Fold this sequence. Notes:
- The complex is a heterodimer of chains A (280) and B (57).
- With 280 residues, chain A is an alpha+beta fold.
- Chain A has a 5-stranded antiparallel β-sheet with strand order 2-1-5-4-3, with helices on both faces.
- In chain A, β4 and β5 form a beta hairpin.
- In chain A, α2 packs antiparallel against α3 and α4 runs antiparallel to α6.
- Chain A is elongated, with a radius of gyration of 30 Å.
- Chain A is built from 6 helices and 5 strands.
- Chain B is mostly helical and 57 residues long.
- Chain B is built from 2 helices and no strands.
- The longest helix of chain B is centred in the last third of the chain and has 36 residues.
- The model of chain B has no long low-confidence stretch (mean pLDDT 89).
- At the A-B interface, α1, α3 and α4 of A face α1 and α2 of B.
Amino acid sequence: MATTPPVAGPGPEVGAAGGSVLGEPVGRRRGRLRTWLLLEAGAVTLGYGVAVLREGAPATGGGWALVAAGAVAVAAPLWVKSRRELRQELETRSAETLAIEADAKLRLVVGDVVTPIAEVVGRVHQVSGRGERESLRGQLQQLVVEAVASLCDGERARAVFFQLERGEMRPAAWFGRGDPPTTVFTDAPADRRGQEALLLVRFHDYLLVDDVRADELPRGAEPRPGAGYRSFISVSVFCGEQNLGMLSVDAPEAHAFDETDLNVMRAMAQLLGAGLVDRR
Amino acid sequence: MMRGQVVPEEARAWTAGLLLATDYFANARREAVAKASAAILGRLHRRVSSEDRGSSR
């Protein structure tokens, strides 16, 4: 599953900026740790030197060997301690960065995406003119694919909303990396992928595929030949009994999405469904 | 105390199509990371401080 989030892209910069447990720059703490270790080594060396001055320098090879062995005995534990403490420092810093990434993503999803999109959904149902409502619905589709492509963890992700009309699904809005989508899902006997996609919508299901080349895919979920993606999530868009289409996000990397992305997709699909549904 | 708009101006500009999604998300992400960083470090600081007080008793 994903570990390279564009959403949390700035995450590593946070680490680089030097945040640490106590809000103290990591570099400064590491420098202080080294200073203490050097002081410790200096104190031992001084004590050793004083002892040598009092007792006199070693006169034999065996005496010098004893000095060398003493130096190694002092340096080795200090070196081990230094490495262990630096590793612990690094682990703490990684945990902080991960916590910051998770918190930032939550803020983005709830504060910067769901809130304004929910406001647009409300407006869709308030406007009286059909033309204005359709225009707002088009706007809503575009907002949802922009949000999905920006929030989901895939690098160079592409989000597409396939609208269901007269038994076929065609791309109605898309956002993300280059190539515009061309796939049309139909119920034609030769269109196995189309049939499966339509079934996914009808059964109000979702599908997350980590790697289209590695996973054992359900029939009809395999990519078309020459497709530029390795992983994808597809989610049915519906409201009540009305089936409205399918929201998909894909990425050229394998394992680009995780369960958090899937939950973002499910929430966005439901928001989209709430905005597209007809009053009956 | 905190007070502000439920849907901020910048979010309204994005939903109205006046602001590009790339610009909106770049800025929103930057702000979210800055606030998350402050919140997490604050929480950790408070936890470490309370543990220090607990262990010194």
